[in-house]
Amino acid sequence: MKQKKNGFAKVIILVVSLIVIGISGTYAYFTLSMSEPQTTSAKAGVFKVESSLETTNAINNNKIRLIDNIEKETKAEKVTFTVTSKAESTVDGEYYIYLKDILLSKNLYTKYLHWELVQNNVVKASGDFADIASKRTDTPVAGEADNVVTNISEIKLNETPFHLDKNSQDTLIFRMWLENDPNVNQIAITNGSFAGRLYLEAFPISEINGTVNQNQ
């Protein structure tokens, strides 16, 4: 029988539920519908969104224990937040969730550091940091330590936008955890660090032709 290790990885996780920019105001869009060759009509829509990311507590844990993947729902670090189309909205919308302003130590460029995005109790996106080196934006220094903190460009968590019906609310969960592997010495991923911010970007959808207006 495999024996689970008792050690923990000293990883600082700080996911700040941050400013939601670009979505708190009212969006108006205009589309053109041709009913006859000589006649046009314009239709305006309102898309007003708010998110509890503005007030949700951040993750802050400097002793993240290794867990098995099957334990993620109960033991992974997480941020739970809502995205709400307010009563004033007359059209549906779409939105993306990002991780931005990421600071990640090199020893956590690993398949063992996982993230997952859940929408209304359904896992919609997931990944790890095994190939994150390609997103590094600062310049490597010769002889830098294995756990040097590096700057990472943004990660779009859901490549396909989430649809938000007018006057509806979605509940989302963002999880992060370190996977336990009982057959591997994982000492190399201890004493690492991660910091980042969750960011929401939302747009209205045209009732007439289904297009998305992304004009800020």
Largest sheet: 8 strands, mixed
DSSP helix fraction: under 10%
Q: Total number of β-strand segments?
A: 15
Number of distinct helices? 1
- Rg estimate, integer Å: 21 Å
Globally, the shape reads elongated
Question: CA-to-CA gap between the ends?
Answer: 57 Å
Instruction: Round the mean pLDDT to the nearest integer and report it.
Output: 76
**Low-confidence blocks of residues:** 6-43
Describe the structure.
This protein has 216 residues and is mainly beta. The protein is built from 1 helix and 15 strands; from the N terminus they run ββββββαβββββββββ. The strands form 2 sheets. Strands 1, 3, 4, 6, 7, 9, 10 and 14 form an 8-stranded mixed sheet that branches. Strands 2, 5, 8, 11, 12, 13 and 15 form a 7-stranded mixed sheet that branches. Strand 3 and strand 4 form a beta hairpin. The longest helix has 4 residues. The termini are far apart. About 18% of the residues have low confidence.
